Structures are given as C-alpha cells and as structure tokens.
C-alpha cells in the first residue's frame, strides 16, 4: 500500500507498507510526475512493515526509477530493516540525486534533510 503523506510543489512524501501492487503505482506515479513539473523532485519514502513488491509492481518500480533518474534532487528513505538501507545504496548508480537512508528513529532528520533547498 502507498499512502501520500504530503505533496507540496516539488516535494512528495509517501509511506510504503505491505506488498506494493501495480494499482499502488497507478495511484502515486502521477503525483510524482506532477511534482517534477514544478522543479527537481525532493522525495521522502517512509517504509513501515514494507514487504516488497508483487512482480508487476517491481517492473513498475524499475520503469519509474529509469524515468526519474535526472528529475530527483533529494531522495530520503526511512526504514528499520537492513535490506531497506541497501535500497538507498542500490539506487545511487542510477541517479544524480543526493540519497540518504535514515533509521525510523531518525525520521524527523529525514524530513528536514529532504526538504533542504526547497
């Protein structure tokens, strides 16, 4: 499931939980692209009880990453699992964005960091 936590200008914050589906991507991808029309995207991704992707959703995610590579300025991940921290590291070669992973206990720091420069 994807919950849009905030969307203002070129800033979007989402919470991912459970297993993402193709329907989830159809819901939030237009929000992401609308934000990129207002400037380089500042994106916060908060993961809570996140269990990954269904196969079609994984393909959606790969396509989204390829389309957004040059449109993101800052990308903050918040999570509490080691594999979620690795997601931030895996993203780095595919984008020019500044990427930072924050432990769930440091969520407020993530919100502050990702919004810097807005």
Per-chain topology:
Elements lengths: L1 E7 L2 E10 L1 H15 L4 E13 L1 H14 L3 E8 L2 H10 L6 E6 L3 H8 L4
Helix pairs in contact: 1-2
Describe the structure.
It is a single chain. The protein is α/β, with parallel strands linked by helices. It has one domain: Transcription Regulator spoIIAA, CATH 3.30.750. A five-stranded mixed beta sheet has the order 1-2-3-4-5, with helices on both faces. α1 packs parallel to α2. The radius of gyration is 13 Å and the shape is globular. The model has no long low-confidence stretch (mean pLDDT 89).
Strand percentage lies at 35-45%
Report the total helices: 4
Broad structural category:
alpha/beta
What's the CATH first level? Answer: Alpha Beta
Q: What would the principal axes of the Cα set say about the shape?
A: globular
Name a few traits of the molecule.
Transcription Regulator spoIIAA, 5 strands, 4 helices, 5-stranded mixed sheet
What's the gist of this structure?
By secondary structure, the chain is α/β, with parallel strands linked by helices. It is built from four helices and five strands; from the N terminus they run ββαβαβαβα.
